[in-house]
Design brief:
Strand order of the largest sheet: 1-2
InterPro entries: MazG-like_dom
Largest sheet: 2 strands, antiparallel
Number of strands: 2
Helix content: 55-70%
Protein name: ArpR
CATH topology of the largest domain: Helix Hairpins
Structural class: mainly alpha
Pfam families: MazG
CATH class of the largest domain: Mainly Alpha
Shape: globular
Radius of gyration: 16 Å
């Protein structure tokens, strides 16, 4: 995983994406999330795999543009959810604060 992230960051630098405006990069994130939704709606496993990968790529670049990395973002998210209480409602986890 480390090697893949490094290759994506290098690709981003070679394309000048690492210095681009991050609000525009977020539009790419949203576009790719839409492709994931489309794949789920169609039951297309190949498209879903590609879409999830594309979402991760765009997030790696978004983090890079903001002088962050994927690992620190994931760690921050995990630290926030690791002790979270809640329950499943209709197949969706709802945190206790929202119940």
């Amino acid at each position: 995983m480390d090697e893949l992230i490094q290759l994506i960051e290098e690709w981003s630098q070679n394309k000048g994406l690492d210095k681009a405006e991050s609000s525009k990069q977020f539009l790419k994130v949203a576009e790719e999330v839409g492709e994931v939704a489309s794949a789920l709606a169609r039951g297309d496993e190949h498209m879903l795999r590609d879409g999830i990968g594309d979402v991760v790529v765009t997030l790696i670049i978004l983090a890079q543009q903001n002088d962050m990395d994927l690992y620190e973002c994931l760690q921050a998210a995990y630290d926030e959810i690791k002790g979270r209480k809640g329950k499943m409602i209709d197949g969706v986890f709802v945190k206790a604060a929202d119940l």
